[in-house]
Specification:
The protein is mainly alpha-helical and 430 residues long. It has three domains: 185 residues, no CATH class; 84 residues, no CATH class; 124 residues, no CATH class. It is 64% helix and 5% strand. The strands form four sheets. Strands 1-2 form a two-stranded antiparallel sheet. The chain has a two-stranded antiparallel sheet with strand order 3-4. Helix 1 crosses helix 12 and helix 16 packs across helix 17. The longest helix has 29 residues. The protein is globular, with a radius of gyration of 24 Å.
């Protein structure tokens, strides 16, 4: 059995005795991050044009403070200002319907909007990135679970990786959300977090339906793990190594008993198990674990004489994701998310949204052969249609970028030009 699994099951950094010892550490990190981001967001909102924020607030029928923060969420490239405003409005109205209504003066409304804006940015940026980073591993787990016979080491690997996500990330985030939102339940918090996992903001009914249909999936998985553990051969294991395995069996039995509870009364830990099942994975068969502990998820890309991708800058990642998208049923959504992240990174390096988009297209043409490169001016004209110039009350001209349309255009361009074209081939540089 792998030494790292034995260490973790004996009570290493992550998992010990059925509980995560670093939950407090995760909550501490969340607390520190929110302290930092509060200061950053409270400073950045002063750059938001007040006339635009006022128009948004009036259209959304919310106080000006919510419109200001919603625009900053948009400027940070997280969500559109309309969607961000609807998320802020939903929580504002929820509090208004309880004993915790926000006082109707500007400082209180702004403080609420900033704190809620922090949550929106965290859930749809860092948390979403943490989920996406684990998708290859989760896909591998799915492949193992579909096998008729599961070796003991892989059973324990599945338990470890699953607990790492549910107890080490999702449950602490849910706990923090509930503890910072007065008058809520764990299930209400789970719906909010589930929306972020599904990338469907302001669609609580979709999240509710998705969440409440996963109980049977969780039961089947736990049943399979429990059965596999009970018939596994532990004759070569020492009592010290067997002890945490027995705890795992007890934990699974405990989880099975709780997964049938009414959703509104479920614990945060049980809801985290359901939310784990919402994480989207690729439909392609995952590659097996190699002896060295590596997971081969894609074929290597020959570049500069080396059989490996050189992921040195954002354009390398874009090239990789274009290739990866060809293997997925959700190629458009996958590439759309990749384009958004890479574009945001490049813009943060001091580039205008249009220039960055232009460079992304030109860079990919440099990396593919047999694909005719478009005229630069023609592309600039097309990309310029996603920017609207507006004049503020003090006669200043501001530019508003339709990021959703821009990202959609880029992802479709890459798919049609480099994936659907029969002539498209990667340049092999030796």
């Amino acid at each position: 059995m792998s030494n790292w699994i034995k260490k973790e099951l004996r009570g290493g950094k992550h998992y010990s005795g059925g509980e995560y010892e670093d939950i407090d550490s995760t909550l501490h990190d969340l607390n520190e991050e929110f302290k930092t981001s509060h200061g950053e967001l409270s400073q950045k909102i002063f750059r938001v044009p007040r006339d635009l924020a006022k128009q948004l607030a009036e259209a959304c029928e919310v106080p000006l403070a919510l419109g200001i923060v919603a625009y900053q969420v948009h400027f940070d490239g997280i969500l559109t200002e309309e969607v961000a405003c609807e998320l802020l409005k939903r929580e504002y109205l929820r509090l208004k319907a309880t004993d915790y209504a926000i006082p109707t003066f500007e400082s209180a409304e702004l403080d609420f909007a900033i704190k809620e804006g922090q949550w929106i940015e965290y859930l749809y940026k860092r948390f979403a990135r943490q989920i996406n980073d684990r998708i290859p591993t989760i896909t591998t787990i799915e492949g193992i679970l579909n096998s008729n016979e599961i070796p003991i080491e892989k059973i324990l690997m599945i338990i470890y990786e699953r607990n790492k996500m549910t107890k080490g990330l999702i449950a602490p985030v849910l706990h923090r959300w509930v503890s910072t939102h007065r008058g809520t339940t764990a299930f209400q918090g789970a719906l909010v977090v589930a929306e972020a996992i599904l990338k469907s903001p302001v669609k609580s009914e979709k999240a509710r339906l998705a969440l409440t249909t996963k109980a049977e999936d969780v039961r089947k998985i736990f049943d399979k793990l429990k059965s596999a553990l009970k018939v596994a051969d532990f004759s070569l294991w020492s009592p010290r190594e067997l002890e945490p395995i027995m705890r795992n069996i007890n934990d699974i039995e405990d989880s099975l008993s709780k997964v049938d509870a009414p959703f509104e009364t479920m614990s945060e830990a049980s809801l985290a198990e359901l939310m784990f099942q919402l994480i989207p994975t690729g439909s392609a068969s995952p590659a097996p674990l190699e002896k060295g502990g590596y997971v081969v998820v894609t074929s290597p890309v020959p570049r500069h004489g080396e059989i490996a991708p050189l992921l040195e800058d954002p354009y390398d990642f874009l090239e990789r994701d274009i290739r990866l998208s060809k293997q997925r049923d959700d190629s458009e959504e996958f590439l759309l998310n990749a384009v958004q992240k890479i574009h945001q990174v490049l813009v943060e390096k001091n580039g205008s949204p249009v220039e960055v988009a232009l460079n992304m297209i030109m860079q990919m043409h440099e990396r593919y052969s047999a694909v005719k490169k478009p005229e630069r001016e023609e592309l600039l004209t097309k990309l310029g249609t996603f920017v609207q110039k507006e004049q503020t009350e003090d006669q200043k001209v501001t530019e508003k970028v339709d990021f959703d349309s821009l990202y959609s255009f880029l992802s479709k361009y890459f798919i049609e030009t480099f994936l659907n074209s029969r002539n498209a081939e990667m340049k092999q540089t030796t």
